[in-house]
Specification:
The protein is an alpha/beta fold. The protein is built from eleven helices and eleven strands. The structure holds NADP nicotinamide-adenine-dinucleotide phosphate.
Length: about 325
Protein backbone atom coordinates (compact mmCIF):
# COMPACT_ATOMS: atom_id res chain seq x y z
CA UNK A 1 0.00 0.00 0.00
CA UNK A 2 2.51 2.62 1.08
CA UNK A 3 4.76 3.04 -1.90
CA UNK A 4 7.05 5.67 -0.49
CA UNK A 5 10.46 4.37 0.32
CA UNK A 6 13.20 6.37 1.88
CA UNK A 7 15.21 8.75 -0.20
CA UNK A 8 17.03 10.57 2.54
CA UNK A 9 18.08 14.10 1.78
CA UNK A 10 21.27 15.56 3.04
CA UNK A 11 21.10 18.27 5.64
CA UNK A 12 18.22 19.03 7.89
CA UNK A 13 16.42 22.10 9.03
CA UNK A 14 14.49 21.17 12.15
CA UNK A 15 14.52 23.99 14.65
CA UNK A 16 16.20 22.60 17.73
CA UNK A 17 16.38 24.14 21.11
CA UNK A 18 19.31 23.50 23.34
CA UNK A 19 18.80 20.18 25.03
CA UNK A 20 18.88 20.78 28.76
CA UNK A 21 15.73 19.33 30.23
CA UNK A 22 15.99 15.57 30.35
CA UNK A 23 19.00 13.86 31.81
CA UNK A 24 20.46 10.94 29.89
CA UNK A 25 20.89 8.94 33.05
CA UNK A 26 17.22 9.20 33.84
CA UNK A 27 16.35 8.46 30.20
CA UNK A 28 18.34 5.24 30.27
CA UNK A 29 16.97 4.32 33.67
CA UNK A 30 13.49 4.84 32.37
CA UNK A 31 14.20 2.76 29.28
CA UNK A 32 15.36 -0.05 31.51
CA UNK A 33 12.44 0.43 33.87
CA UNK A 34 8.79 -0.45 34.24
CA UNK A 35 7.12 -3.15 32.21
CA UNK A 36 3.49 -2.29 32.82
CA UNK A 37 1.20 -1.77 29.87
CA UNK A 38 -1.19 0.83 31.18
CA UNK A 39 -2.69 4.13 30.26
CA UNK A 40 -2.34 7.32 32.25
CA UNK A 41 -5.13 8.69 34.39
CA UNK A 42 -8.10 9.44 32.17
CA UNK A 43 -11.03 11.74 32.24
CA UNK A 44 -13.60 12.50 29.60
CA UNK A 45 -11.66 15.63 28.66
CA UNK A 46 -8.11 14.28 28.58
CA UNK A 47 -6.75 12.15 25.75
CA UNK A 48 -5.53 8.62 26.41
CA UNK A 49 -1.83 8.87 27.05
CA UNK A 50 0.17 5.67 27.06
CA UNK A 51 2.60 5.44 29.99
CA UNK A 52 4.13 1.99 29.53
CA UNK A 53 7.88 2.13 28.95
CA UNK A 54 8.13 -1.38 27.53
CA UNK A 55 6.18 -3.58 25.13
CA UNK A 56 6.08 -7.35 24.72
CA UNK A 57 6.62 -8.16 21.06
CA UNK A 58 4.83 -11.36 20.16
CA UNK A 59 4.01 -11.77 23.84
CA UNK A 60 7.54 -12.88 24.76
CA UNK A 61 10.14 -10.28 23.76
CA UNK A 62 10.13 -7.33 26.12
CA UNK A 63 11.56 -4.24 24.46
CA UNK A 64 11.95 -0.67 25.59
CA UNK A 65 9.54 1.31 23.45
CA UNK A 66 12.07 3.85 22.17
CA UNK A 67 14.14 1.92 19.64
CA UNK A 68 16.82 2.74 17.08
CA UNK A 69 16.60 2.67 13.28
CA UNK A 70 19.86 1.57 11.67
CA UNK A 71 19.18 2.80 8.13
CA UNK A 72 21.17 5.97 8.78
CA UNK A 73 24.41 4.21 9.65
CA UNK A 74 25.02 3.39 5.96
CA UNK A 75 26.40 5.53 3.11
CA UNK A 76 24.61 8.33 1.27
CA UNK A 77 21.38 7.21 -0.42
CA UNK A 78 21.30 4.30 2.07
CA UNK A 79 24.05 2.88 -0.12
CA UNK A 80 27.38 1.32 0.77
CA UNK A 81 29.50 1.96 3.80
CA UNK A 82 29.19 5.12 5.87
CA UNK A 83 31.96 7.69 5.48
CA UNK A 84 33.07 6.95 9.06
CA UNK A 85 32.62 3.28 9.95
CA UNK A 86 34.05 3.66 13.44
CA UNK A 87 31.43 6.30 14.18
CA UNK A 88 28.66 3.99 12.94
CA UNK A 89 29.88 1.16 15.18
CA UNK A 90 30.06 3.45 18.17
CA UNK A 91 26.57 4.80 17.54
CA UNK A 92 25.08 1.30 17.64
CA UNK A 93 27.05 0.41 20.78
CA UNK A 94 26.04 3.65 22.45
CA UNK A 95 22.37 3.09 21.65
CA UNK A 96 22.48 -0.18 23.57
CA UNK A 97 24.46 1.41 26.42
CA UNK A 98 21.69 3.99 26.71
CA UNK A 99 19.11 1.24 27.15
CA UNK A 100 17.85 0.77 23.59
CA UNK A 101 17.12 -2.92 22.96
CA UNK A 102 15.08 -2.80 19.77
CA UNK A 103 17.21 -2.16 16.70
CA UNK A 104 15.55 -1.99 13.30
CA UNK A 105 17.49 -2.79 10.14
CA UNK A 106 17.02 -4.45 6.73
CA UNK A 107 19.07 -6.40 4.23
CA UNK A 108 18.35 -3.50 1.86
CA UNK A 109 20.15 -0.91 4.02
CA UNK A 110 23.51 -0.56 2.30
CA UNK A 111 22.52 -3.16 1.07
CA UNK A 112 23.98 -5.48 3.71
CA UNK A 113 26.19 -2.91 5.41
CA UNK A 114 23.72 -1.98 8.16
CA UNK A 115 23.34 -5.61 9.25
CA UNK A 116 27.10 -6.18 9.05
CA UNK A 117 27.83 -3.12 11.18
CA UNK A 118 25.24 -4.14 13.78
CA UNK A 119 26.84 -7.58 14.13
CA UNK A 120 30.33 -6.09 14.30
CA UNK A 121 29.25 -3.65 16.99
CA UNK A 122 27.14 -5.93 19.14
CA UNK A 123 27.95 -9.62 18.58
CA UNK A 124 27.83 -11.52 20.91
CA UNK A 125 24.57 -9.70 21.52
CA UNK A 126 23.82 -8.59 25.07
CA UNK A 127 20.84 -10.35 26.62
CA UNK A 128 17.53 -8.87 25.64
CA UNK A 129 18.70 -7.04 22.51
CA UNK A 130 16.18 -7.61 19.73
CA UNK A 131 17.36 -7.19 16.15
CA UNK A 132 14.45 -6.61 13.82
CA UNK A 133 15.46 -6.99 10.20
CA UNK A 134 13.52 -7.04 6.95
CA UNK A 135 13.60 -8.58 3.51
CA UNK A 136 11.65 -8.27 0.30
CA UNK A 137 13.09 -5.03 -1.12
CA UNK A 138 16.11 -5.13 -3.38
CA UNK A 139 18.56 -2.34 -4.23
CA UNK A 140 19.64 -1.97 -7.85
CA UNK A 141 21.40 1.29 -6.94
CA UNK A 142 21.53 4.26 -4.53
CA UNK A 143 18.07 5.55 -3.72
CA UNK A 144 16.38 2.69 -5.62
CA UNK A 145 14.08 0.19 -3.92
CA UNK A 146 12.51 -2.68 -5.88
CA UNK A 147 10.18 -5.20 -4.22
CA UNK A 148 10.90 -8.91 -4.54
CA UNK A 149 8.47 -11.02 -2.55
CA UNK A 150 9.10 -14.27 -4.36
CA UNK A 151 9.31 -17.17 -1.90
CA UNK A 152 12.75 -18.33 -3.12
CA UNK A 153 14.15 -14.81 -2.78
CA UNK A 154 12.75 -14.37 0.73
CA UNK A 155 14.12 -17.70 1.94
CA UNK A 156 17.57 -16.84 0.60
CA UNK A 157 17.27 -13.39 2.13
CA UNK A 158 16.55 -14.85 5.58
CA UNK A 159 19.57 -17.16 5.32
CA UNK A 160 21.79 -14.27 4.24
CA UNK A 161 20.59 -12.02 7.08
CA UNK A 162 21.23 -14.81 9.60
CA UNK A 163 24.84 -15.02 8.38
CA UNK A 164 25.44 -11.28 8.34
CA UNK A 165 23.86 -10.77 11.75
CA UNK A 166 25.64 -13.88 13.11
CA UNK A 167 22.40 -15.21 14.53
CA UNK A 168 20.86 -18.67 14.62
CA UNK A 169 17.38 -17.20 14.72
CA UNK A 170 16.11 -13.73 13.85
CA UNK A 171 13.85 -12.37 16.60
CA UNK A 172 11.70 -10.24 14.29
CA UNK A 173 11.73 -10.65 10.50
CA UNK A 174 9.58 -8.14 8.67
CA UNK A 175 8.34 -8.34 5.09
CA UNK A 176 9.68 -4.96 3.93
CA UNK A 177 6.91 -4.36 1.39
CA UNK A 178 4.25 -6.23 -0.48
CA UNK A 179 5.40 -7.17 -3.97
CA UNK A 180 2.52 -6.37 -6.33
CA UNK A 181 3.72 -9.14 -8.65
CA UNK A 182 3.57 -11.86 -5.97
CA UNK A 183 0.50 -12.87 -3.96
CA UNK A 184 1.01 -11.82 -0.35
CA UNK A 185 0.09 -15.35 0.73
CA UNK A 186 3.08 -16.76 -1.17
CA UNK A 187 5.53 -14.32 0.39
CA UNK A 188 4.20 -14.97 3.88
CA UNK A 189 4.14 -18.72 3.21
CA UNK A 190 7.90 -18.59 2.69
CA UNK A 191 8.40 -16.72 5.97
CA UNK A 192 6.19 -19.25 7.75
CA UNK A 193 8.41 -22.04 6.43
CA UNK A 194 11.48 -20.22 7.78
CA UNK A 195 9.72 -19.78 11.11
CA UNK A 196 8.81 -23.48 11.21
CA UNK A 197 12.47 -24.26 10.49
CA UNK A 198 13.44 -22.24 13.58
CA UNK A 199 15.16 -19.45 11.62
CA UNK A 200 12.68 -16.72 12.52
CA UNK A 201 11.09 -16.16 15.91
CA UNK A 202 8.41 -13.65 14.96
CA UNK A 203 7.12 -12.26 11.68
CA UNK A 204 6.23 -8.61 11.08
CA UNK A 205 4.98 -6.56 8.14
CA UNK A 206 5.89 -3.19 6.68
CA UNK A 207 4.14 -0.76 4.36
CA UNK A 208 0.76 -2.49 4.52
CA UNK A 209 -2.89 -1.63 5.03
CA UNK A 210 -5.31 -3.31 7.46
CA UNK A 211 -6.70 -5.56 4.73
CA UNK A 212 -3.21 -6.86 3.96
CA UNK A 213 -2.51 -7.43 7.66
CA UNK A 214 -5.68 -9.50 7.96
CA UNK A 215 -4.71 -11.57 4.89
CA UNK A 216 -1.19 -12.11 6.22
CA UNK A 217 -2.48 -13.29 9.59
CA UNK A 218 -4.31 -16.13 7.90
CA UNK A 219 -0.93 -17.50 6.81
CA UNK A 220 1.32 -16.82 9.81
CA UNK A 221 1.01 -14.99 13.16
CA UNK A 222 2.00 -11.34 12.74
CA UNK A 223 3.42 -9.50 15.77
CA UNK A 224 4.21 -6.05 14.37
CA UNK A 225 3.69 -3.56 11.57
CA UNK A 226 6.11 -0.88 10.41
CA UNK A 227 4.57 2.00 8.43
CA UNK A 228 5.38 5.64 7.86
CA UNK A 229 3.86 7.72 10.67
CA UNK A 230 4.63 10.95 12.45
CA UNK A 231 2.80 13.98 13.80
CA UNK A 232 2.40 15.48 10.34
CA UNK A 233 1.74 12.25 8.41
CA UNK A 234 -0.92 10.02 9.88
CA UNK A 235 -2.12 8.27 6.76
CA UNK A 236 -1.50 5.01 8.61
CA UNK A 237 -3.78 5.95 11.52
CA UNK A 238 -6.11 3.06 10.58
CA UNK A 239 -3.17 0.65 10.76
CA UNK A 240 -2.15 2.00 14.15
CA UNK A 241 -5.71 1.53 15.42
CA UNK A 242 -5.73 -2.04 14.07
CA UNK A 243 -2.43 -2.77 15.84
CA UNK A 244 -3.62 -1.23 19.08
CA UNK A 245 -6.80 -3.30 19.03
CA UNK A 246 -4.91 -6.57 18.51
CA UNK A 247 -1.81 -5.63 20.54
CA UNK A 248 0.58 -5.76 17.58
CA UNK A 249 3.67 -3.56 17.85
CA UNK A 250 3.55 -0.49 15.59
CA UNK A 251 6.96 0.78 14.44
CA UNK A 252 6.50 4.23 12.89
CA UNK A 253 9.17 4.95 10.31
CA UNK A 254 10.09 8.58 9.63
CA UNK A 255 9.00 9.18 13.26
CA UNK A 256 10.63 12.60 13.24
CA UNK A 257 10.00 13.38 9.62
CA UNK A 258 13.07 11.77 8.06
CA UNK A 259 15.82 13.84 6.47
CA UNK A 260 13.45 16.76 5.84
CA UNK A 261 12.43 16.98 9.48
CA UNK A 262 9.16 18.19 10.93
CA UNK A 263 7.93 21.74 10.55
CA UNK A 264 8.52 23.37 13.93
CA UNK A 265 4.80 24.09 14.25
CA UNK A 266 3.75 26.34 17.05
CA UNK A 267 2.44 23.73 19.53
CA UNK A 268 5.64 21.72 19.12
CA UNK A 269 7.77 24.78 19.75
CA UNK A 270 5.64 25.86 22.69
CA UNK A 271 5.96 22.48 24.40
CA UNK A 272 9.68 22.33 23.62
CA UNK A 273 10.16 25.73 25.20
CA UNK A 274 8.07 24.83 28.25
CA UNK A 275 10.11 21.67 28.92
CA UNK A 276 13.47 23.07 27.83
CA UNK A 277 13.87 20.31 25.23
CA UNK A 278 14.06 20.07 21.44
CA UNK A 279 11.18 19.88 18.98
CA UNK A 280 12.32 16.38 18.03
CA UNK A 281 12.08 15.26 21.63
CA UNK A 282 8.56 16.61 21.86
CA UNK A 283 7.68 14.77 18.64
CA UNK A 284 8.98 11.48 20.05
CA UNK A 285 7.24 11.98 23.40
CA UNK A 286 3.98 12.67 21.55
CA UNK A 287 4.35 9.41 19.62
CA UNK A 288 5.12 7.37 22.73
CA UNK A 289 2.08 8.78 24.49
CA UNK A 290 -0.12 8.26 21.43
CA UNK A 291 -0.38 4.50 21.88
CA UNK A 292 0.92 1.73 24.16
CA UNK A 293 1.88 -0.28 21.05
CA UNK A 294 3.94 2.56 19.51
CA UNK A 295 7.63 1.65 19.08
CA UNK A 296 9.41 4.59 17.43
CA UNK A 297 12.74 3.82 15.72
CA UNK A 298 14.36 7.21 15.06
CA UNK A 299 17.55 6.98 13.02
CA UNK A 300 20.69 9.00 13.36
CA UNK A 301 24.41 8.94 12.79
CA UNK A 302 25.00 11.61 15.43
CA UNK A 303 25.83 10.95 19.09
CA UNK A 304 24.16 14.12 20.26
CA UNK A 305 20.95 13.26 18.39
CA UNK A 306 21.00 9.67 19.63
CA UNK A 307 21.28 10.78 23.24
CA UNK A 308 18.62 13.40 22.74
CA UNK A 309 16.24 10.89 21.16
CA UNK A 310 16.71 8.29 23.89
CA UNK A 311 16.16 10.89 26.58
CA UNK A 312 12.81 11.79 24.97
CA UNK A 313 11.40 8.58 26.46
CA UNK A 314 11.53 10.37 29.78
CA UNK A 315 9.59 13.43 28.66
CA UNK A 316 5.94 13.69 29.66
CA UNK A 317 3.69 16.16 27.90
CA UNK A 318 0.68 17.59 29.66
CA UNK A 319 -2.69 16.48 28.23
CA UNK A 320 -3.17 20.03 26.93
CA UNK A 321 0.18 20.01 25.13
CA UNK A 322 -0.52 16.57 23.71
CA UNK A 323 -3.90 17.66 22.38
CA UNK A 324 -2.53 20.87 20.86
CA UNK A 325 0.18 18.90 19.05
CA UNK A 326 -2.36 16.27 18.01
CA UNK A 327 -4.31 19.00 16.25
CA UNK A 328 -1.37 19.70 13.91
CA UNK A 329 -2.28 16.58 11.87
CA UNK A 330 -2.57 17.29 8.17
N1 LIG B 1 9.93 0.14 6.50
C1 LIG B 1 10.31 1.10 5.70
O1 LIG B 1 9.94 1.16 4.52
C2 LIG B 1 11.21 2.15 6.23
C3 LIG B 1 11.44 3.33 5.51
C4 LIG B 1 12.30 4.29 6.07
C5 LIG B 1 12.88 4.08 7.31
N2 LIG B 1 12.65 2.91 7.97
C6 LIG B 1 13.23 2.66 9.32
O2 LIG B 1 12.84 3.73 10.15
C7 LIG B 1 13.99 4.31 10.75
C8 LIG B 1 13.73 5.79 10.96
O3 LIG B 1 13.45 6.41 9.74
P1 LIG B 1 14.35 7.59 9.16
O4 LIG B 1 15.74 7.46 9.70
O5 LIG B 1 14.19 7.61 7.72
O6 LIG B 1 13.61 8.86 9.69
P2 LIG B 1 13.64 9.67 11.06
O7 LIG B 1 14.12 8.81 12.17
O8 LIG B 1 12.32 10.33 11.19
O9 LIG B 1 14.68 10.83 10.74
C9 LIG B 1 16.04 10.62 10.67
C10 LIG B 1 16.68 11.96 10.30
O10 LIG B 1 16.52 12.86 11.37
C11 LIG B 1 17.80 13.31 11.83
N3 LIG B 1 17.74 13.29 13.29
C12 LIG B 1 17.68 12.21 14.12
N4 LIG B 1 17.59 12.59 15.40
C13 LIG B 1 17.59 13.96 15.39
C14 LIG B 1 17.53 14.93 16.42
N5 LIG B 1 17.44 14.58 17.71
N6 LIG B 1 17.55 16.24 16.06
C15 LIG B 1 17.64 16.61 14.75
N7 LIG B 1 17.71 15.72 13.75
C16 LIG B 1 17.68 14.40 14.06
C17 LIG B 1 18.82 12.39 11.26
O11 LIG B 1 20.00 13.08 10.91
P3 LIG B 1 21.34 12.93 11.78
O12 LIG B 1 22.01 11.67 11.33
O13 LIG B 1 22.08 14.17 11.46
O14 LIG B 1 20.92 12.87 13.23
C18 LIG B 1 18.15 11.90 10.00
O15 LIG B 1 18.40 12.77 8.92
C19 LIG B 1 15.12 3.99 9.77
O16 LIG B 1 16.40 4.04 10.39
C20 LIG B 1 14.75 2.60 9.35
O17 LIG B 1 15.17 1.67 10.33
C21 LIG B 1 11.82 1.96 7.46
Amino acid sequence: MTDEFPEPRQGRSVTRRTFIGVSLASGAALLAGKSDVTFGAQSSTTPKMATNTTFKLGGDLTVNRLGFGAMRITGEGVWGWPPDRENALKIVTRAVELGVNLIDTADAYGPETSELLIAQALHPYPNGVVIATKGGLTRPGPGQWVPNGRPEHLKQAVEASLKRLRLERIDLYQLHAVDPKVPLEESLGALKQMQDAGKIRHVGLSNVDPHEIARARKIVPIVSVQNRYNIEDRKSENVLIYCEKDNLGFLPWFPIGGGGGLKPENPLNLAAKAHGVSVVQVALAWLLERSPVMLPIPGTSSFAHLEENVAAANLKLTPEEWKAIDAIAG
